Amino acid sequence: MSFTTVPTFTPGQVISANDLNTYLRDNEGYLLNRPSQIILRDNNANYTNSVAGAFANIDGANLAITLSFSGSLAYVWFQGVASGSGAGVAVDFDFTLDGNRVGAAGINGLYMFRSVGTNTPSGIAYAALIPVSAASHTFKPIWSPQSGTATLYCGANSSGTDYLVQFGVIEVA
Amino acid sequence: MLEVNVTISYIHSDGLTAALQSALGTNKALGVSSYGSNRPISVWLADSASPLEQQQAAVVAQAHDPVFLSVDKTHVAANGVDTAIVTVFAPKPAALVTLLIGSTSVPVTLANGVGSISIVSNDPASIPISVQNPANRTTDTLIVEAI
């Protein structure tokens, strides 16, 4: 169900049942249930990435959300637990919108995680409000270590690092 | 970026990346991504990589013979008794591993890809532990301090 733009009613205009169903019932239903999707990913394995200087999808097959928007603004968030292959390894994060990097104006994207030790896990969480047009759009989280290898823990069933990843998108305006 | 998918179960990410960059150059071989042992890895190449270079990258990845090192403690008492256990994991079938303890070669007996050696020292020393001939295998070097 999409949102239908409400016209300006004029004095004396007859309001039909169809008008009420479209402009009140359906639109209210849309606003109470805006397009959204939340992925709680248990990959039964960790993700790794050693691509420095360019962003790669974290998991283009399973961490991707496509929604049909009637509004103009999406709230996109990502959270998980990561580490680097050495102390001080910095890992850059961003999102793509329809394949284009949201933070492309910055070489390093939207967010940076720095590993406090070799393969030492700690939390990451980043989010962005992203303008969108009224159409279908696909979002994906992407990452790039500045050196070494980055690991994103994702349910590898290893006690102490058996963390899951959450990725979500919701239309907010 | 160009993506080349290769089916291999385990990767030492830094080791494979170093091997790819040694073979193709850092301008062509950008890195690798993995998603778990039951899914192909992604080898990421620059857009300028030729079909031959893409093929070469796949060959390097398929030859990857990873070795993972870990140690139960990084400091031991320099008394000839206190022991650090170095665990070696080399998952490729029939993999052989020889470690370098300092400059001494020490073959490791593997069972189902796993083996271990003990490190003791009578004297204070910083003892580096690495893999002999590490190309396309690992970049790991462990240090055990005998104090």
Notes on the structure:
The complex is a heterodimer of chains A (173) and B (147). Chain A is mainly beta. Chain A has one helix and twelve strands, in the order αββββββββββββ. Chain A has one helix at residues 17-32; strands at 36-41, 47-49, 56-57, 65-68, 73-84, 90-97, 100-101, 111-114, 122-131, 136-145, 150-152, 165-171. In chain A, the strands form two sheets. In chain A, strands 1, 2, 5, 9, 11 and 12 form a six-stranded antiparallel sheet that branches. The two termini of chain A are 16 Å apart. The model of chain A has no long low-confidence stretch (mean pLDDT 96). Chain B has 147 residues and is of the alpha+beta class. Chain B has helices spanning 13-24, 51-62; strands at residues 2-6, 29-34, 41-45, 68-71, 75-76, 84-89, 97-101, 104-108, 114-119, 125-131, 141-146. The longest helix of chain B is centred in the N-terminal third of the chain and has 12 residues, at 13-24. Chain B starts with a strand and ends with a strand. The mean pLDDT of chain B is 97. At the A-B interface, β2 and β3 of A face α1 and β2 of B. β2 (47-49) of chain A pairs antiparallel with β2 of chain B.
